[in-house]
Amino acid sequence: MYGQLPPARPTQPHNLASALLRIPSLSYITIMKIYSLAVVLTPPSGPSAILSQATDLSSFSFYQKGSVGEFLTFFTKTVAERTPQGQRQTVQENNYSAHVYNRGGAEQLSAVIITDMEYPARPAFSLLTKVLDEFTAKVPQSSFSNPAAISFPDINTFVQKYQDPRQADNIMRVQKELDETKIVLHKTIESVLERGEKLDNLVERSNALSVQSKMFYKTAKKQNSCCSVM
């Protein structure tokens, strides 16, 4: 999911749980921002596994970083598992976009980048292709079964370097991987969930979210309900 006036510093940090819950956005101008970039093992059946991930939580408060980091991982796996092989899609919620590329193939890998809405889609998908190319070239498939042992420091460099989407757009000009004929689907988090699934239930059942993060989610939802009534 994107010149403009110089960015204004937000009066309070972003809140990913609030984004997922459609809490009204704050009235300020945001800079283009990458929050998370991940390579995910996504077999056609069975749970996914994050093989490598880098985050930038500098816009969040110290007390929010732990819960926000967990939700970034949760959101990454949720959208990766629900993107069919060979497909690209953008899942949008409030001011956040999760761009997903499930390359599939023998490696069964996906790449997911979570950005703000201002970060343009074309460079985001160009970056996902580059990340998958670099990862498969440097990380042997035999190590996928032990994510903790995988070393892929390039992913941290990608997050920092490509905060400026013009850098990612340079990839586009070189590789010509993503052309105008490629179909990118734009969806909401609700539309990618399977029939009968609810985000509340996924959060409650998740072993990857701490008790603190689940309370963080419930509090944000309660605040959202109050805002809706008002």
TrEMBL record:
Any one GO cellular component localisation term in the record: Golgi apparatus
Domain Longin: 39-159
Domain V-SNARE coiled-coil homology, residue spans: 170-230
GO biological processes: endoplasmic reticulum to Golgi vesicle-mediated transport
Transmembrane domains' residue ranges: none
GO molecular function, one term: SNAP receptor activity
Domain of life: Eukaryota
InterPro entries in UniProt: Longin-like_dom_sf, Longin_dom, R-SNARE_YKT6, Synaptobrevin-like, V_SNARE_CC
Main location: membrane
Keyword presence, Membrane: yes
Keywords: Cell membrane, Coiled coil, Lipoprotein, Membrane, Methylation, Palmitate, Prenylation
Membrane topology: Lipid-anchor
CDD domains listed in its UniProt record: Longin, R-SNARE_YKT6
Record localization: Cell membrane
Pfam families: Longin, Synaptobrevin
Statement: the UniProt record of this protein carries the keyword Lipoprotein: yes
SMART domains: Longin (SM01270)
The family this protein is said to belong to: Belongs to the synaptobrevin family.
Name used for this protein in its record: Synaptobrevin homolog YKT6
Source organism of the structure: Bondarzewia mesenterica
Lineage: Eukaryota, Fungi, Dikarya, Basidiomycota, Agaricomycotina
